[in-house]
Description:
Elements: E1 6-12, H1 19-29, E2 35-42, H2 48-55, E3 60-64, H3 70-75, E4 85-89, E5 93-94, H4 99-109, E6 113-121, H5 138-145, H6 153-159, H7 162-165, E7 171-172, E8 180-184, H8 185-191, H9 203-212, E9 216-227, H10 237-253
Parallel strand pairs: 1-2, 1-4, 2-3, 6-9
Antiparallel strand pairs: 4-8, 5-9, 6-8, 7-9
Helix pairs in contact: 1-2, 5-6
Amino acid sequence: MTDYLVTGSIVTFNNISTIETTLRTVREQTRGVPFHLYVIDNSSQDGTTALVRAADPEAEILHIHWNVGFGAGHNLVLPRLKSKYHVIINPDIALSEDAITKMTRYMDEHPEVVMLSPRVVFPETHADQTLGKRNPRLRYLLASRLRKCKWTQKILCRYAMQEEMETGEPFEIENATGCFMCVRTEALRKIGGFDERYFLYFEDCDITRMLAREGKVLYFPYAVVEHVWKRESKKNFVLMLVQVQSMFRYFWKWRFN
């Protein structure tokens, strides 16, 4: 198997509406480093797999016959990785710059850093998405679900470390969004990847805490990615239950930390 400096993985489940843009922009923009992409398909029924084959023949597809979830899907590539860095990519991400090269070069210069989380913006406006950067607390999660209420804004700004973001410089964070993560492969392998007890939601909070034991986790504003943020758990009752279940698992796991 060829050794790549950087590998990436995308876990899909019926993402035909967004995955083509993700594949195209990742390929177009990732020019500064040798890069190999894995697509793990959780038994999509909407033609996602066929679209991926047509849109990106270079991508290595792993087709699963049932939906194993987000973290478990990404973990399937761990034994295959021979890279220095690995990028976790959502199937609703778009790149308008070579974010992957920027992040890996920074990590080359800062060996104490094990993971970078980029600036995440909305595609249409390029406004920053208010994403948690501190460890989850019940007050933060409640404010996030009720984010249209005026009283939540101060809490959400603290959760997102908005004041620190205004400096425009990298800084340490406790919680990195799973929509796009750049990780040292060695560190990812050392912790065993994602905790597969989370089917969906909170696995990114959890893996950030695990990786923080191996080195620094930073918010990295010099790299920007676009994210189609649908907040499905607010619209889908089943996904809301999955989110609540993951929340309890997370708080129980980290109750003494």
